């Protein structure tokens, strides 16, 4: 599974006003891990993927838009 970084950035802009710390809190992950995933593509393991899936389910979004399975 791979996170679509540009789509994830759009999600962060929409729900958290482009704020890494706020989005990381919403996802329940470390802000530095979120920053790494968003800017380098490194560190998008199962915790980040699971957090994005949970975030999408809670808001009625299709997580396949944000994650390549």
Tally of strands: 2
* Coarse structural class: mainly alpha
- What's the overall geometry? globular
Instruction: State the low-pLDDT regions, or none.
Output: none
Total tally of structural domains: 1
Q: Percentage of helical residues?
A: 55-70%
Series of secondary-structure elements, N-terminal to C-terminal? EHHHHE
The pLDDT mean sits at: 94
Helical element count?
Answer: 4
| Widest beta sheet: strand line-up | 1-2
Radius of gyration: 10 Å
Largest sheet: 2 strands, antiparallel
N- and C-termini, Cα separation: 5 Å
Strand content: 5-15%
Mind explaining what this structure looks like?
The chain is mostly helical and 69 residues long. The chain has four helices and two strands. A two-stranded antiparallel sheet has the order 1-2. Helix 2 packs across helix 3 (31-40). The radius of gyration is 10 Å and the shape is globular.
Task: Supply the key terms.
single chain; 69 residues; mainly alpha; two-stranded antiparallel ribbon
Write the layout of secondary structure elements.
Blueprint (H helix, E strand, L loop, with lengths): L1 E2 L1 H12 L3 H8 L3 H10 L5 H13 L8 E2 L1
Helix pairs in contact: 2-3
Structure summary:
With 69 residues, the chain is mostly helical. 62% of the residues lie in helices and 6% in strands.
């Amino acid at each position: 599974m791979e996170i679509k970084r540009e789509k994830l950035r759009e999600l962060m802009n929409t729900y958290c006003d482009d704020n890494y710390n706020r989005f990381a809190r919403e996802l329940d992950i470390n802000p530095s891990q979120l920053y790494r995933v968003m800017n380098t593509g490194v560190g998008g393991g199962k915790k980040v993927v699971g957090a994005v899936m949970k975030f999408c389910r809670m808001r009625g979004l299709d997580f396949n838009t944000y994650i390549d399975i």
